[in-house]
Structures are given as C-alpha cells and as structure tokens.
C-alpha cells in the first residue's frame, strides 16, 4: 500500500496529467518477481522455483509440487523501484534526495543564464533534456499484506493472497518535457502566444494537443488483487512429475492513465480513485457519463473506480527431482473502469498556463516549478473548469474496458548441488500498448548459494524491456520454519553515473509448517 499512499500525497488535488507527471518524474524500473525477495536476488528467475503462496500470479502449477511444506504464510512483503534511462545521476539524485533545492534564478524570477531569446536557463534546460526521450522512467510498487497456502498430496495445493500493484512507464517528447518543467517558457507556448494578453500571435497556427504531445507515451495503472490458485500433480513416472494449475483474481481498479500521441492522434484516458482527491469541476461532475465516486460513504481505504478479473494457467515439470521446467500465461482478462473517468480532446488547440503568483519573486507568469520538488506546481495540470489554468481541456468519459497485460512466462532451474541452484526466466508481453504492460521481453538468470544451511546468497543478471544489464544481489535467512531477507534489483544502479536505479524488495515474516524438502 506504500506506493498508493505515496501517490496520494504527491498528487493531492491533482488529476489525469498529475498521474502522468508522477510516472515521468519518479523514474523506476519494472520487474517481474513482484515482492519475492529470494527471486529478486536471482535476477527475477522465479517461474520454476516459486512454490506455496509465492506461485500466485507467477505459475499456479507449482502449487501442485510436493515440497514438504503443509502450510505456508507471509505478512507484509514489499517491493519498489525507481530509475531512469535518460537522466544522469546528479539530476536523478536531486529529484529523490534534494527536492527543496531551488533552481538558480534571478530576483525577478527568471532563470540564471537565460536570455530574451531563450528564457529557459542552463540548469532547467539540463533537467528538460534529462527527461526527454524514450523510457525516461518506469516506476513500480508492490505490496503483499498477506498470503497463505495449504498442500496435501491427495488434494494438491491451494493458496490465497491479496496484493497491491502499481506499474507506470513514460516516454516524453521535447514539447511535453518543456511544458512540465518550463510552463509558459516552453517553445510551443512562447512561439504561438502573446503572453501579455494570453492570446494567439497574429498568423500563428496553434498546434493541437496531439501535436504538442508528439512522441509522448505515459501509462500507469494501480490495482488491488485478491488471488486464489490451485495446482495438482497430474502425472508421475520414470523420474518425471508434471503439475497443472489455474489461478483466478478479482481486481479493484484504483487508478489508470493511458496517454499516447504520435503527433496526429492522441489517446488520453484516465480514471482515479477518490484517494487521489482530484478536483473535478461541476461541468464534468454533472455529466451522466462521468459517474462520480467520492470517499464519502465508502469504508475502503482505497475506493475503487473499476473492477475486473483475470485468469492464470500454468504447467510445471520436475525431472529427476533436480531439474524444474515451467510455463505459464498470466493476466488473461479485462478490467472495466466505471467511475471518475475523463479524457482529453485531441483536436483542441494547446493553450498557455493561467496566471499564478511565484512564492519567491512574486512574478505572475507561470514558468515551471521553482524547486526540484515540483509537486506544488502539479495543480497546473489538474482537471479544472477554468480553461486558462491548464494547457489541456478535459471532458467526462464513459466506462472504458481494457485488457489486462497478458504475459507468457517461461522458466527453468536446476540444483547443481545441495548448496548451489541456478535458474533462468523469460517474460514476454502479448500487447505492449496496454497500460501496465512491459514494452518488450524481460529476461533474467541467477544463482543461489548457501554457504551454511540457514544463509542464502543470490546474484545474477537481468535485462530487456528497453533496459540494459542489471546485476541483482540478495541475502536471506532460511530455516525449516522461517524466511526473511532483502534484495536489490541492481546493485550497480546505486553507484553508476548513467542509468541510476534505486530498488528494494523485502519481507521478514514468512513462515512454514511441515518439513521442507528444500529451502526454496
């Protein structure tokens, strides 16, 4: 739930583009092992080794594998990551650790080093360049409050859990990045409008919103899942065991944003839970297509604005009790967003930001955030009936049905000895254009080493989905009845100047009843 609470704080009184800016400005890195700290340290290689409740959302067939554990449960596992493929370390650190640092500005509010011909100063320009391009950011957050599983050889394995998931990714075109970080100093505004009167210049052909957002793709989705899975051994003979499994999930939609523009066609749709506290004008709220939902009368901490369901199918095989092979198709289904939905009119002309009062200089011209913590300025993008407050106009949208980001997962693992296990995984998206999906295949491989029976060390490599090589690292305490540990998805991401990457995955309350055949 941490990622949702954080989103609520950062986007308070903001709406559709605010969620977009969150995805763009809090870069992250998506991974495929969710909150599984043992798998994270192995480069995300988990499909063939996830058992008990850990198999939910990965491969339900593994629930049918006899591990010796009769009952397993966990409380409070979590994972989160932030990174950027375009921002250098110095700028990335500013937005994470030095958010109240001011941009260098003159007493009149203009950027230091700016000129009448180019009012964007060198410091701000570096930030704009840092967040322009493909894969400027991917952010992920996952939390599993509770998970439990039961296994009996005559029945098979069954597991349930609840999980929160958020995945967002963004590409930003040059004009979109300038609008975010420079406001009315963006060239697309400055070249087309007289900012004294806030009217188009004589002879100017003001571009549409679709043209202004050319090259921009922002997709973010936050959901809560209730999962149940069942797996059973279907064949055993000549050293081979084969299990099949099925999983079902009920989904509560907390928020979605799907914005894409090729310069001619813009698709921009969003629906946000009342937890985001968005300010909807009466003109939108009264629309019968809007179906406004508020916090009032709801007992849920995170009221949903959509519901859906999904299915997982899996098969797994164990050969000679040492080699594990698996395949699964996950997230087959759809989610219908039913309330608080808005969209941007792609044919409208771009327009300037409205007047504001600079809290430092008193300047009334909005020229972008004054500090690296620019959340205070995000209200400039909120849904509002005042057409001059934002460069976008919004309108109520009806229900929107979207497919889940269906993926094919393949995995293999083997025990080289009692102390060493190696594994490899591949995750292939069926449709990269669906919000919450990966943009290309993601692969990972790793090794687990146990210097003593209770200590597990893991490392490996992963890559794909538009990203370079990552080197994970994990440590866990593993006994017959308890597991706890921490992992990072890329240890080098903490130190390199390029491709900065922060991630943490952990859990400290995993328990098992029974006598495990393996500490995996």
Strand element count: 21
* Radius of gyration of CA atoms, rounded to a whole number: 25 Å
Please identify the oligomeric state: single chain
| Order of neighbouring strands in the sheet with most strands | 1-2-3-6-7-9-10-14-15-16-17-19-20-21
Shape: elongated
Low-confidence blocks of residues: 1-32
Share of residues in helices: 10-25%
State the end-to-end CA separation: 26 Å
- The percent range for strand residues is 35-45%
| Distinct helical segment count | 9
The H/E string reads HHHEHHEEHHEEHEEEHEEEEEEEEEEEEE
Mean pLDDT: 85
Tell me about the largest β-sheet.
14 strands, antiparallel, barrel
Counting helices, strands and paired strands, the structural category is mainly beta
Summarize the structure.
With 520 residues, the protein is mainly beta. 12% of the residues lie in helices and 42% in strands.
Question: In words, what does this structure look like?
Answer:
- It is a single chain.
- 12% of the residues lie in helices and 42% in strands.
- The protein has 520 residues and is mainly beta.
- A hairpin with a 2-residue loop joins strand 6 and strand 7 (240-261).
- Helix 5 (122-130) packs across helix 6 (174-182).
- It is elongated and about 85 Å long.
- It starts with a helix and ends in a 6-residue tail after the last strand.
Task: List strands and helices in order, with pairings.
Blueprint: H1 2-10, H2 16-25, H3 37-40, E1 69-83, H4 89-97, H5 122-130, E2 133-152, E3 156-172, H6 174-182, H7 187-190, E4 193-194, E5 199-200, H8 209-212, E6 217-237, E7 240-261, E8 266-272, H9 282-285, E9 306-319, E10 323-337, E11 341-344, E12 394-396, E13 400-403, E14 407-415, E15 420-429, E16 442-452, E17 455-464, E18 467-470, E19 473-478, E20 482-488, E21 501-514
Antiparallel strand pairs: 1-2, 1-21, 2-3, 3-6, 4-5, 6-7, 7-8, 7-9, 8-11, 9-10, 10-13, 10-14, 11-12, 14-15, 15-16, 16-17, 17-18, 17-19, 19-20, 20-21
Helix pairs in contact: 5-6
